[in-house]
Amino acid sequence: MKSLVRVASRLGLTAAVFAALGLGALGACKGKSGPPASGTGPEVPGRPVETQPPNAPGQRPAFVGQTRAPYRTANVAFDAEVLARGLDHPWSVAFLPEGAMLVTERPGRLRIVGKDGEVSQPVANLPGVDARGQGGLLDVAVDPRFADNGMIYLSYAEAEDGTNGTALARARLVRDANPHLEDVTTIWKQTPTLDSTMHFGGRILFDRTGAILLTLGERSIEEGRMQAQRLDGTLGKIVRVMPDGSIPKDNPFVGKANVRPEIWSYGHRNIQAATWRPSTGQLVAIEHGTRGGDEINIVEPGKDYGWPTIAYGIEYQGGPIHAGITQRAGMEQPIYYWDPVIAPSGATFYDGAAFPAWRGSLFVGALAGKHVARLTFDGDRVVGEERLLVDRARFRDVRTGPDGLIYLLTDDDDGELLRLKPATRTATAR
Minimal CB count within 10 Å: which of 16, 57, 73, 129? Predict the structure, then answer.
């Protein structure tokens, strides 16, 4: 089956063509939430799903359950269907009103993927990106009023005079015989820019007022890391702007001297996943942490999330983070952290109808971990963790589609757009 799928991909066959040939779903595989296939570690209800030694064995969580949540399954059988493949390190997927999808490829391309899996030629007239290292074209978001204005928003790494930084642009999507963007305008740029190829953040969210929140990184190098606590720049922040780039008057630091008014929260390392929690309206951000310190935060305006003053984990090359402290008054604690790390990217709170047993769960893609983590909540605390599609791929984005299904992007030079749907028959492996 795998060799047949590779042939189909090289011939440019779409999922729809593949199905029409009587060969079934393109690359479909079965899955079941529950005990994994052998070789992925024991998962016993009531015991932590994570069994590897911690990266920072001497550290202790601030409260019970802050890390290594017990294994909890919903026993949901699902099919993981490959809707499209051949994508070059896809980073983000967003849904258009009629059911098609926009997918960014990190080297600097935007594609339209039809409901049948057909992948368009690259959309023309994108802004130039700096695609070195972790940079490139990152998130794409569709304006809530897209049906009226046709606007989309892109985050990307932008080069500037030997340095670079995260930028946010808007444009009008024109879907004709040659899809392209019009009226491309950069509405916001990160300052200061630095000479680094890492930690761009980049997730875009609209809030209930129509304002945009953009997650950022501190660029990894020491010069940027130390600015995550400073309020005269936007390294290591979440910022909030209006769709034209202007500053909302109710931002927490508006009117304060020597403070950037677009700052919403600060003390972040590198946020590559953020989502709204439908049941509470909370903003939940998941960030790449230190070696032993990937974390989930409930983000509130004006608050300090600690980096680099406090952190769980150690430096990737070994040794403590600064003074090695994990708590300080006035700095927020993560509601959950992973030690060892999973490298989280892309997240969604599931509120669809297709998987009733998963409603209220937080799904997080794992790059280094090569799985999708499903977290169970009791109030604001994580009380269970389950790992799906273990060793299937590096998962870059996770979204709930308007059809109530779950969509995933895999980070690869032959990247895939997957769709999880209820199993058509009992699954025995995942």
Answer: 57
Given this model, what pLDDT does residue 42 score? Answer: 60
Residue 96: name the closest of 114, 123, 119, 116 by CA. 114
Q: Which residues of the chain have pLDDT under 50?
A: 1-26, 35-40, 427-430
Give the three-state DSSP class for 194.
Answer: strand
Give the count of alpha carbons within 13 A of 197, CB side only.
5
Distance CA 153, CA 185 (A): 10
- Hey, what amino acid is at 57? P
pLDDT at 28: 59
**What whole-number distance in Å separates Cα of residue 328 and Cα of residue 310?**
7
pLDDT of residue 46: 87
Whole-structure pTM value? 0.91
Catalytic positions? 199
- C-alpha 271/C-alpha 286 separation (Å) is 6
**What is the DSSP track for 123-169?**
PB-PPP---STT-SEEEEEE-TTHHHH-EEEEEEEEEETTEEEEEEE
For domain 2-422, the CATH architecture is: 6 Propeller (2.120)
